[in-house]
Amino acid sequence: MTEALRHARAQHQTKDWNTDYALRAGVEGTIRQAVAVTDLHQARYRGLAKTHLEHIYSAVALNLIRLDAWWNGHPLDRTRTTHLARLELRFAT
Questions:
Q1: Domain count, the chain
Q2: pLDDT recorded at residue 60
Q3: Residue 90 phi/psi, 5° resolution?
């Protein structure tokens, strides 16, 4: 098991792994934004055609939000504070 951890950690240092992980992080960020903005946990409608249309509208909404942020120079919220860090900040004051 220790050897497997060493091997995995060594792979994490490679450029190929970092490139693949950056792509995955971007996709997961988009999914998180879609869930937060358009509530895509569940489809609101029944049927493949209506669900597909809902997904298209959600994608258009996300693109408009991103375009608005880019045009106005407001970066999207890319920073996240962990729960532990928030507790530390709360008790530090």
A1: 1
A2: 93
A3: -65, -40
